[in-house]
Amino acid sequence: MRTPKPFDLALTVESHGFYDLPPWHWDRGARRLGRPLRLSAGRVVYAEVTEGPKGLVFRALAEGGVGAPDSREAREAMAVCLDFSHDLSPFFARVEKLEALRAEGEGRDLPDLRWALARGAGRLLRSPTVFEDAVKTLCTTNCTWAVTRGIVSRLCERLGEPAPEGSVTFPAPEAMASRDERFYREEIRAGYRARYLVELSRSAADGRLDLERLRRGPSGAPGAEEAAAAIRELAGFGPYATEHLLRLVGHHGHLALDSWNRAKLARLRGKRRLPSDRTLRRWYAPYGEWAGLAMWLEVTADWHGDGPTLP
């Protein structure tokens, strides 16, 4: 696969925790990422990418083999998941300029992002669909990561389709829409999110909601504020969930603050008390439309060192 330069598979996959949620399969030792994909014609394949000596090696598996059109569609879907199309050059230029100021003793509150410049960090692992990212975002609200993983695992087990390599797909909106709130409370154990999962999946399944248009692309997608307004209208999406999903569709102007990153930033910067949200916004304001990405790269820098501290 032709990749952007520079590109680091592990850096992108482990950019946030979704790699740890089904139906992703990440073998860090082998540097191999895979998952089942439901193609436009309804066929399910298992796609994976592996780091080779000359770049990423792609392959797709399915019963009876995979023809060229299906292989091409699966390869394009994986490129979307790995955020290949996102032009990060304006972000790197902003970081380079601010790093120069920091080196001169100015910008006291600026984070040290030299590591991100050196390694080309900033691409975020995404799902093949915005619907999947939206569901998973809902499952991260007001709970531990273990609870999130349990909810998503049960969704795939109960509503996903069997796929090659013994895997199951993430459920389609139609599959999720066919179940009621009681199912999500009792079988999926989604708690208060049950109602929101029903509303989201039914709106997506019957065509009232077109989440896929929100994903930032070369043209046609709404701007950051229009996308934010659309996401805020979704049931269950408060400030954190809205800004988290905004990040995954390619808009980084918001910080997506939650209890974890507030506490992590206080520790990283040697603060005895949690900084106010106003203070946090001031720290990253020089990055403009990239403020949220700058914050995220500071708070996760220790995930990507010689001794990773992945949550």
User: What structural category do the secondary elements indicate?
Assistant: alpha+beta
- Main-sheet strand order equals 1-2-3-4
Note poorly predicted spans.
none
| CATH topology category name of the largest domain | Endonuclease III, domain 1
Instruction: Please report the first level of CATH classification, the CATH class of the largest domain.
Output: Mainly Alpha
Proportion of residues in helical segments: 40-55%
Q: What's the total helix number?
A: 14
How many domains is the backbone divided into? 3
CATH superfamily of the largest domain: Hypothetical protein, domain 2
Distance between the termini: 29 Å
Helix-strand pattern, N to C? HEEEEHHHHHEEHHHHHHHH
Average pLDDT confidence is: 94
Biggest sheet features: 4 strands, antiparallel
> Tally of extended strands?
6
Structural shape: globular
Gyration radius, in Å: 20 Å
Could you explain how this protein is built, in words?
The chain has 311 residues and is of the alpha+beta class. The chain has 3 domains: 9-81, Ubiquitin Conjugating Enzyme (Roll); 88-122 and 252-311; 130-237, Hypothetical protein, domain 2 (Endonuclease III, domain 1, Orthogonal Bundle). Helix content is 43%, strand content 10%. The protein has helices at 9-13, 68-81, 89-103, 114-119, 130-138, 145-159, 173-177, 181-186, 193-205, 224-232, 239-248, 259-268, 277-284, 291-299; strands at residues 25-27, 32-38, 44-52, 55-61, 162-163, 167-168. The strands form 2 sheets. The chain has a 4-stranded antiparallel β-sheet with strand order 1-2-3-4, with helices on one face. The longest helix is centred in the N-terminal third of the chain and has 15 residues, at 89-103. It starts with 8 loop residues before the first helix and ends in a 12-residue tail after the last helix. The mean pLDDT is 94.
